Amino acid sequence: MSEKNVKRRDFLFTATYAVGAVGAAAVVWPMIDQMNPDASVKALASTEVDISSMNPGKTITVLWRGKPVFIRRRTQEEIAEAKAVKLEDLKHPEKDEDRAKNPEWLVMLGVCTHLGCVPLDQKGDYNGWFCPCHGSHYDTSGRIRKGPAPTNMEIPEYKFVNTNTIKIG
Amino acid sequence: MSDHEYTPKSKFGKWFNDRLPLLTLASHLTDYPTPKNLNYWWTFGGILTFCLITQIVTGLVLAMHYIAHADMAFDSVEHIMRNVNYGWLIRYIHANGASMFFLAVYIHIFRSLFYGSYKSPREIIWIIGIIIYLLMMAAAFLGYVLPWGQMSFWGATVITNLFSAIPLVGEGIVTWLWGGYSVDNPTLTRFFTLHYLIPFLILGLVVLHIWALHVPGNNNPVGIDIKKPSKDTVPFHPYIVIKDGFALLMFMIVFAFFVFYTPNILGHADNYIEANPLVTPAHIVPEWYLLPFYAILRSVPDKLLGVVAMLSAILILAALPWLDTSKIRSAVFRPLYRQFYWILVADVLILGYVGAMPAEGLYLLVARVATAYYFLHFLVVLPILGYKEKTLPVPLSITEPVLGGSPNLALAKNKENFKD
Q: Is the ipTM of this complex over 0.85?
């Protein structure tokens, strides 16, 4: 066999492997992607909540995308407590103003950022929330203060449609 | 099997065996030379095979009545318990069978640790065993989710969230596992599918596990290499078959006790409450057989490192044949290792206990010390011990210690009345 032939054959082998790999990936991807959220799950992206009957100091929990969302109408003391915290004392520094644009209303995902349990209201060392699963304490702004959770409870996208209605998502 | 010549007696048998040597395989399994000093700790391989078959058969039957849908799963389990003929029995066997399976596998693993069965030339048997153990844990977790009770739902939430600890891609992986933004119907249907698949993967690995075992043959309580077949071995059938059978009967008494007298003692009352995504049970704990690893997870205050520690605690076992530097297999001849072995047993039991307790105060401190010791045992004690330990003299054959130190074969014949 001449040297020219060998090179030609090498090229054909490499090209065959490359096309084969692309083909295999093209078949494998749909098999993997089918497990991602489907169209019907994505369609349930927003929820409207009536908050007209809520007095200060009351929390309601609503289901959004299968997850609980806490809506709390905070008391003046709680707001003051949240604002008084120094940023350097926080594990995940965030200002209370950035978390609750209307300071009276705190809207956040009721999901502990450690392993996804639902924290309990008005419990723990910081008068906010306490996760019973692995002992994370959150303050009145839902910020992590003590325990294994790495970050503050997440704030979802939401807006006030009017004074009595919040739209989440 | 190359050491084994076999010719079927019948003409048809010979014709068949020439085309597919199944009879040669059967004959190999029957005559398989086994060390004659195997004790009852060696009967758990057979017991585990029984457990696997039990889970597959009862699981198959349960799947005929169970409905994998978030709205119907919980009710379908109650339907099995109340309406299906003998449904209560089949479900209780399956649920308690999982615990019995783990009980047997822990004894099997700790037997291996005591007698050094993981050492050369049996590393591959050991590693296949670790993979089977991992798959067992996956199957048990997935199966526990299917009744769709509170513990099912929140157990699934916590365990899948472990993947969110992976930097960058973690959140994406969790969403992918869930098929949504929380544990929900898509999660349940895929968990059911995988729960059905894994036992058959285990079955395949069990075949490889036994195949790999039949190459060097069984380890034994003395832990020495033996000639096969020889005065030191007996054929698998009938000697080991009858011993395994007796042990299996004893095991089934314990099994039946749980099924018929305390079928719910190993479960959690919370799982008889239907899954509710808005309320987490006050105290989430996994099933007893996962508690030591759960304790390790919780003893580390950092999320990612906790997950890493928990996985390492299992995967470190795969490296054990190389971490243990001692040439002597059996702990019988390793006076120091024997003590560290029992400390490890106690350590794992303590981890299991604190794993069931709240992660605070003294429990947390104990969990941290026990976690540190667990890794210390494998990473420091075992490698050093192999060099430092003064081992006891090892006999030349299995027969030798029985004869009071004499390797004399004539005496062996006299004393033990061999039938050749």
A: no
